[in-house]
Structure formats: structure tokens, C-alpha cells
Amino acid sequence: PNDNTFVTTSLASVTKQPVLDFSTAQQNLTLNFSEVGDLKNNGFIVLEIQGEGQFNDAEIRQWLSNRFWREPFTALLVSPNDHGNGVNSGEVADVRQFFKIISDGTQQTIDHTIDNNGKRLRLALASDVETTASRAGAKVELKLNLANQAFKLTSGSQGTVALTAGALWNASYTADPVATKPLFKLGKLFQLSLTNAGKATALVSEGFLKLDIGDADISATDFAITNVTTNQTIQRDKVNLTLTGDVSAFKKDANGNLVNKAGVSIGWKAAADGQSATAVLGAGKMAGGVQDALAAFGTLYVAADNTVPVPVVNFNVKAEIQGNSQATYNYFKDELADLFILTRDGMKFDTITTGTTSANLIHIRDVSNILPTEGGKIFVTITEYADHAANGRGEGTVLVTRKALSVTLPSGGAVTLKPADVAADVGASITAGRQARFLFEVETNQGEVAVKKSNA
């Protein structure tokens, strides 16, 4: 196969060892011996595992055997001795031209040995292979997809497993080993994905009880989970989902199940403290390579008669499977940030400080008189600028991004701030004498700001 058609079997590295002991590759291989003399009488074709894996003796023996007496081999084929005009053959007479064959009286098996701690498989070449098959263009086709459960891989390992194939005789390679592309890749079990987060803004004019999208569902786009293995199965009812964030403002039924605008349960059940929600992925089995759309889980709804202020929050989601809940996998999780992003509207303003002007006073007043009891949050983003002279330039460095202050703006009230105290409140250290920009975002849609300059 070429690079575009080679199939690497993806398996979950968290697969439990007793299960991963019996793995099957999907990619078949054809060994091309292009030179006369590549294959020597009583030599070997050598296959060696590169990476963390071994051959399983019983399964390899079964793979290298025919079904009954004179029936053809199906898992290993050879080019017949007809000058390359025929298709590869598993007929016993053709295979015998390449390999030594042994029999137990019922089946015939290609003579082979597994050594080097299970990593090397040697196929014994016939005693007259130089006469019968050692010609330019001789081929051996290995149908690895029929080598059922013939590979023992290592649980917990990351990376790939490949093979090298060559021909060996009398302490030297007559055909140097050639490496395959990876037959196996061990990595994730499943993966969460998303195109666009569900976004909405709580309106200060409504006391943050309603959203800018009106009476509608908040919907994420293309929220999905994918089984990223090639052929491993996941039991959906063993995969648990957790939505982290304050869900107290979203509509629920009497049992605490979150519902959409139509009143239909979306699958999430709110925790008792309202700070998260949980769900089970679903029922049935998800095959390797399958993607499940999670449109319902990507939905939230704030009812028209909501009485709980909608918070500023970014919802993260986690999918996990517990090792003690099923027999195939150890614990695994995947996480996705920002499934939903909820903000509050308000006003923005900024002020520049330099050196001693960090003693300026910033007065913020709310004149809407509609803020909730806890007041309107005040967020700040601080950017410090490198030292520079007049007509010069200085690069800006963001010290903090949209961090909430410990003080809030009371409804109809006022807050007085000092830049130096603001920086300390959010853990920003500003270099003395440097310019710094404070960008404030205040949760009020009707406010006033005054900055009193100070040279103290």
C-alpha cells in the first residue's frame, strides 16, 4: 500500500491489558523481493515488531495454517511460478515453493518460530526455494487483517507499533529489513468537539433575568463526541458527562432536569448546589470511528419568567468513563472548554496611568437603579507598556484579562477605585514609572464615570 491508502489501526491506550493482549491489525502487507537471491534455501523471512508489542504464538499459528489438509492458505499468499502472470495464490503447492510446511494430520502450517521475547517472527523458507521461488519480483502477501488477535500490545503506552520485514540467511540479511508505516497507534479513546460555543448576554436592563437572544434556546454548534479508535466499541451508558458552571438560572423540571424552550429534557440534571449538571451519554454501543452529535446537550434555556440573575460564566464539559464500570477500558476523560459562554452587558471605559498617577481616583456610579442585590460586577484588563521616550515606541504586555474586582457596583450607588489598589486586587504587578492601561467593564447599562487626576 502507498502512504495514502495505508490503514493504521487506532486503539485506546487505556484499554485494559487482558483486552489489549489480543489485537488485530487492519492493514495487509505485500513483501516484494526484487532481486534474484533475496530468498535463500533454509533461510527465513523475518518480521520484527518495532514498538511496545509482541506476537501471540497460538494466534500466529492459526493465522499461518490452512483450514483442512489440502485446502489453500487464506492468510498468506505467494506469487506463483508463472513469470508474474498470475494473481497471488494460497494453494498448498504454490506456498510450498516458498516455505517449509508442517502438518498435524488435519491442518497444514507454515513452519515458523517466535523469539526475541515475542518480538520476532521467523518464517522458514523451503530447502529448495532458490530453485522454485527465488526470482526477481517474488512476492509474499501477508493478510494481517486475518491474523485475528495475533498482536499483544501494551496498556498505557503511547505511540505506534510497526513491523520490519526482511530475509535472513547464514548470519546475514539477504534482503535488508524494511520498516512499514505504523500498524497500530495507541492514543485517545474518544474526543469531544465543537464548532461554536452557545453564546448569550444577560441584559442589565432586565436585572440580568433575560438574554439578548430573546425567548429562545442557547445553542452550541456541532457539539459532538467521536470514538477515535478504529474498531473498538464504547458502551454509551458507561460514559458520564459533567457540565461545570452555575446552572441555577436555567429552566428545569420538577426533578431538576434541565429542559429546552419546548419543555423537553435535554439530558442534563442539575446538581443540588446548582453549580454543575451531569448526564449519561446514551444507550447502545458506539463503534470505532463513529461520531455522535450531542445537539440536545448543547442547549440551555432561560425561561421568560426567570427570577434568578444569569451569571457571567464559561461552561466547560467533561466526558469520562470509569475503569470499574466496564471490562474493556481503564479510566479515561476528555474535556472541552467553553461549551457555553454567558456574559452581561454594561459599559466600558479605560484610563491610562503613569508613575505617580496610579494615585488617581476613579469614580463609577450606577444610575440605572435596576442592578440585582449583589450589584454589578466590575472587570478589568490591564496592559503595561515598555519604557519608551517621546516619539518612541513601547510594546504592550497584558498583565490580566477581564478579572473581576472584589468590589461590586451597588444599584443606584457608587464605587471609588485607585488604580494601584485595583492592580493589587487582581494580582497585577506594574513596573514603577511605566504606562499602564486599565480597561474597565461594568455591569450597568446606565452609568457614569469620573477620573480625578492626582499628582501626589
From TrEMBL:
This is Tetragonal surface virulence array protein. It comes from Aeromonas salmonicida. It comes from the Bacteria.
